[in-house]
Amino acid sequence: MSIITLTTDLGSKDHYVAIIKGEIYKQIKDINIVDITNDISKFDIQEAAFVFKNCYKNFPDGTVHIIGVNEELSNENQHLAIQINNQFIIGPDNGIFSLIFDEVFPEKIVELNIPLESDILTFAIKDVFIKAACHFIRGGTIEMIGRPLKDFQNKVTSLKAVISPNSIKGSVMHIDSYGNATTNINKELFNKIRKGRDFEILYGKETEKITKIVSKYKDVTEGERLAIFSTNGNLEISMNQGNANKLLGLKIYDIIRIEFKQ
């Protein structure tokens, strides 16, 4: 069965996600709709990019992804469809694709030219993105619904951490439902800069520090803070059976700094 995924900031309280799914089922009844998440912080393209970037590669060929965060059409915010690794991604040209594809470049990018059935431009997911997604599910090509873009450029800074010979400066990019704070510092970068040296992970007012990275949560006692590399390879600040977000005061975009001994 074909798959369409949703990554939005629409939340679960209102009726908007149900409208989207209903419209998809009206067009294609035999479809699997997967919610990557509908709880992105409102208009936060960096959080959306981080979450999406860390999971879209796990979906099979032919998957169609809809990203609906700050998607209202404007002269500065066009709608794009992207083809990469036999998958399609539909979303706004508001900088989010620059964040997702900061290390790889998509095979094809088009600016969508799907005609609107009304002059209401505030719900692009329903009025534009669903049509594009169903077009791909039916086997349509990307060239049929958009104008190729050859001058796609990054609009915002990337999600990469800042490095020096003796330090890495990153930030919290996502806090999950357990209160674990995932950063944009990955294991490969950490090992490259570390070179076997001792280190301190500093956060908050930098009076708080962690000096080791564990391999599982239960390596520390219940309620103790810890650092661990999560399944996506990014450094995570957590507590064993505790809520690091609340108990350690960690928030999205808080600075996390790693200092290596010279």
Q: Can you walk me through this structure?
A:
By secondary structure, the chain is of the alpha+beta class. It contains six helices and 15 strands. Strands 8, 9, 10, 11, 12, 13, 14 and 15 form an eight-stranded antiparallel beta sheet that branches. A seven-stranded mixed beta sheet has the order 2-1-3-5-4-6-7, with helices on both faces. Helix 1 (16-27) runs parallel beside helix 4 (124-137). It is elongated. The protein starts with a strand and ends with a strand. The mean pLDDT is 89.
Order of helices and strands: EHEHEEEHEHEEEEHEEEEHE
If you average the pLDDT, what whole number results? 89
Low-confidence stretches: none
How does the major sheet shape up?
Answer: 8 strands, antiparallel
Query: Could you tell me the strand content as a percent range?
Result: 25-35%
Helix fraction, binned, reads 10-25%
Which outline best applies? elongated
**Rounded to an integer, what's the Rg over CA atoms?**
20 Å
Question: Gap between N and C termini, in Å?
Answer: 55 Å
Instruction: Count all strands and give the number.
Output: 15
How does the helix and strand content classify structurally?
alpha+beta
How many alpha or pi helices? 6
